[in-house]
Design brief:
The complex is a heterodimer of chains A (264) and B (270).
Chain A: H1 6-19, H2 31-45, H3 50-60, H4 68-85, H5 90-129, H6 137-160, H7 167-194, E1 202-205, E2 208-211, H8 212-219, H9 223-236, H10 243-258, H11 260-263
Helix pairs in contact in A: 1-2, 1-4, 1-6, 2-3, 2-4, 4-5, 4-6, 5-6, 5-7
Chain B: H1 5-22, H2 32-42, H3 46-59, H4 74-88, H5 92-105, H6 107-129, H7 133-142, H8 144-160, H9 162-172, H10 175-187, H11 189-199, H12 206-219, H13 225-254
Helix pairs in contact in B: 1-2, 1-8, 2-3, 2-4, 3-4, 3-5, 3-11, 4-5, 4-8, 4-9, 5-10, 6-7, 6-8, 12-13
Classes of the chains: A mainly alpha (264), B mainly alpha (270).
Chain lengths: 264, 270
């Protein structure tokens, strides 16, 4: 077995950045991509071990699915383990992969999908709404930072190997909690600013015209958006409800609210 | 106004790159924001593109492919919506109204692409059996084709027949329906926000949600999302300083990590 060099690990990193999900499919999800990503390392490790290479190839093609940024940790740890002890114990490799991909997916999706996107893209969108395309550069800059984080993750995984499950996971929990606090603050802030709807309904009592939206705003600013969000939140908690069905519910609600004037 | 061949080609190339971005780096081109902006730029009306893209983006903030779930294709939706709005000359709201149903319809193509790739997975298994690593590598690279075709096809067809589609919409769809879609566009961001509230531990950390809401509800004129994010960052920092570090030493001395599952997670998509 040959040792990995820095250039091999960099190759794996770049492949992980681009190609983990090219071959995404319902049978093994990222399995095919995982194999492609780790290939440069396998080629080096099993350069003169044909049987080992075949076994390692098959192991790398197994079922795999996790958050992409977090996958670097697992790929890194896999490289470290195979470099040290080969593919003799392929169950250990599969165990590492399947054991970590679930928890890492939860943490990674929370931080890198939910919170990251909500913050970065809402700020960029606001600038776009005011007619400025400059905001588009924000996701690009933030993306460059993510690329750096993912590079670090590859090395952390490689250096920690099997210890990854205990040491790093503990730190990730604190980070996820902190990110959740940041995320929920932004989510709360999004409601009054993103939902521009105001109730278009006037009611005449004698000579006085009551504007329903003004009344609601006196109780609480942005009450109408808050009510719609709470309604959606409540609906999503129902069994058999999912985001696609919720779109239809909200479109129906929009049809109703958008034509209030014509109905009354 | 019909769409010129060069515009169609440029947008097809863009959507190919964008879908690769979507399944890899997620730098930006995959987002509805970029989809609208690029389409607007190419078709000579950047402002409309920015508004359609940004509105769709805000609408879908919480919609993400958690765990590889299929979600409506709002990227292609924003490209088509922007294009139709510019062709019809009826403003951004027209495009926003159309982008949502288009995105929903295209969900099926995304599923088809993911199904098709099962074929390459099977191929790769055979190559691996034979120790042919080049074959395995090729299979993953070929996996990009279904992704690209599933996005390029609707964009190309939708733009070639652009004028016809717009005429059909204008003559068959009643005004009240378009009004309804407009209002739906205003309230649809509630979906993205509600998904985020379900996804993040709202029950555990609800006070921060209220702080965020109050900041913008009462101080919307003088506060921005970035401002709220900075306040959130500060509170997250306070948490790490006073609670997080203690908790971390506690978990590591125990040797095992507690995973709390007290938030009732919902199935985001089927």
């Amino acid at each position: 077995m040959s040792k990995l060099e820095k250039s091999d690990i960099k190759k794996v990193y770049w492949r992980n950045i681009f190609g983990l999900q090219w071959g995404w499919n319902y049978e093994r999800m990222q399995g095919l991509g995982y194999s492609w990503v780790i290939m440069p390392a396998l080629k080096k490790i099993y350069a003169d071990d044909k049987a080992g290479m075949t076994k390692a190839l098959k192991t790398s093609l197994g079922y795999f699915n996790t958050s992409q940024p977090m996958s670097h940790l697992i790929v890194g740890a896999d490289m470290g383990m195979e470099e040290k002890s080969g593919i003799e114990n392929d169950a250990a490799i599969t165990g590492l992969k399947t054991g970590l991909m679930g928890p890492f997916a939860g943490v990674g999706d929370t931080i890198f999908l939910a919170i990251y996107r909500a913050i970065i893209f809402s700020i960029a969108s606001y600038m776009a709404l005011s007619g400025s395309a400059v905001g588009l550069i924000i996701p690009i800059i933030a993306g460059a930072v993510i690329l750096w984080v993912r590079y670090k993750f590859t090395w952390i995984g490689y250096n920690q190997g099997t210890r990854l499950a205990t040491d790093f996971a503990g730190r990730m929990k604190v980070l996820t909690d902190a990110a959740s606090i940041l995320g929920l603050t932004v989510v709360g802030a999004l409601i009054p600013s993103v939902i521009t709807y105001s109730l278009d309904f006037k009611y005449k009592v004698g000579k006085v015209t009551l504007n329903a939206n003004d009344l609601m705003d006196q109780i609480l600013p942005a009450l109408a958006p808050l009510l719609i969000v709470m309604f959606s939140y409540w609906l999503l908690g129902k069994k058999k409800m999912n985001s696609t069905k919720l779109i239809f519910v909200l479109i129906a609600l929009g049809m109703l609210l958008g034509n209030l004037k014509n109905i009354f | 106004m019909s769409v010129s061949v060069s515009v169609i080609i440029v947008l097809c190339v863009f959507v190919s790159l964008a879908v690769l971005d979507q399944i890899s780096i997620q730098l930006g081109p995959y987002s509805p924001l970029f989809g609208g902006a690029i389409t607007g730029m190419v078709m000579g009306d950047l402002k409309t593109g920015l508004i359609v893209g940004a509105t769709l983006q805000l609408m879908t903030l919480g919609v993400a492919t958690y765990g590889g779930a299929t979600v409506p294709d709002f990227l292609t939706g924003s490209i088509m919506g922007t294009a139709y709005a510019i062709i019809a000359g009826k403003g951004a709201e027209y495009g926003i109204g159309l982008a949502v149903p288009i995105g929903l319809l295209l969900t099926q193509l995304d599923i088809l692409a993911r199904l098709t790739n099962t074929f390459f997975q099977a191929k790769a298994d055979k190559y691996a059996e034979a120790g042919d690593y080049r074959g395995v590598e090729r299979s993953n690279v070929l996996g990009t084709i279904p992704w690209i075709v599933s996005r390029v096809l609707p964009v190309a067809i939708g733009l070639i027949f652009g004028q016809g589609v717009v005429n059909a919409i204008n003559s068959f769809i009643p005004q009240w329906f378009m009004d309804g879609l407009k209002t739906a566009g205003m309230i649809l961001p509630a979906m993205g926000i509600a998904i985020l509230m379900r996804y993040l531990p709202l029950k555990k950390y609800w006070p921060f949600f209220i702080i965020g809401f109050v900041m913008l509800a009462y101080g919307g004129k003088s506060f921005s999302i970035l401002g709220a994010a900075l306040v959130g960052l500060a509170m997250a920092g306070v948490y790490v300083i006073f609670v997080g570090n203690k908790e971390h030493t506690a978990t590591t001395s125990n040797g095992d990590v507690e995973v709390d599952d007290d938030d009732d997670e919902v199935e985001i998509d089927e």
